[in-house]
Structure formats: C-alpha cells, structure tokens
Design goal:
35% helix; Rossmann fold; 196 residues; Cyt_trans-like; 9 helices; single chain
Length: 196
Amino acid sequence: MPHVEKGMAVGLFGGSFNPPHDGHALVAEIALRRLRLDQLWWIVTPGNPLKSQAGLAPLGERIERSERLIHDPRVKVTAFEAAHRIRYTADTLDLVKRRNPGVDFVWIMGADSLATFHRWQRWREIAATFPIAVIDRPGSTLAFLSSVMAKTYARARVDEDGAPRLSRMRAPAWTFIHGPRSSLSSTALRLLRDGD
C-alpha cells in the first residue's frame, strides 16, 4: 500500500486496467482536481469477478503500462490486492480502512460501472465504508438517475458543488461529477489489438 499521512484525502481508483488508457488517466485527473485529493491510488486488480478472465494481460504488464501512462506524482500505481489475495472491492476497502486510521478515503469509479454496481459483492457495504465519486463516462451520463445504487442512496447524494468536501464526509455519501469525457474503453482497445 502506498504511504499516506493522517489527515490526507486519498482517492481509491480500482480496476483491471486491461489495458490502461487515456480515459482512465482522465478519470484520475478529474478526481484529483474536483475532489481536491492529496493522492490517488490507481489499484490494478488481479481480475474482475464480474468479467471473463480470458484475454486478461498479466498483472505485471498492466502495472507497467499504468505506470507509463501516469505522469502526476500524486497518483500511486499499486497492486496490493494480489499480495493479500483479495478478489472483492468490499474486502479491499475494509483492509484499507483498518490499515490507515485517520486518512480520509473516497472510492472513485466511472459512470459506466454505476449501472452494475448493485451486482458487486456486498455493494451496500462498499457504499457504507467510504464516500463514492462517480465520474462521467460517454454513454453513461444518465446511469446515475436509473441505477439501483443511485435510487437506493438518493438521499445520500451530494451535489457536485460539494465534491471537494466528499472525502471528509461520512458514508454513505456520493456524488456524480460531470466533465470532459474520453470515448476510449479497454474492451474496444483489446478488440483492436486482437484484430491486428
């Protein structure tokens, strides 16, 4: 796990990053700026339980590509989940919380993940552990209105203007952040790569 100090505001941005691309980097940049984070942990996961593992590049390769993509020293590429044999986000957040008392964390995800968030293992526990920032993605802008998570936690939604305070809030709390969007997707990039 990257080093943090008490009182810091830290974003947790997890994914398989298979491969990482400029759209991911844009989400990280928007999160750092709009949430006023001291750090962002770019968590490269061993795999995604909701997706096929076929075509999943080796973890080391995905870490290396992520490191080449990132230029902001506040972004820390890490793969600590593999060392702890963690498969589910709820377990990741529990470990992070136990290991880092006094640090204010916020879970960051693209809006494309919001539609299926209720299928994640112990998703309500995730929402109750740390505040969540949902970053707009092409074709997903309306997901925050219709998703199970958005409906379930409608009262916990924080207006976008409150995003800079989100990491300091008690969960459940979440916001949807609009901004520049990238049409890149890992799935499309894999299809292009495999088609060559």
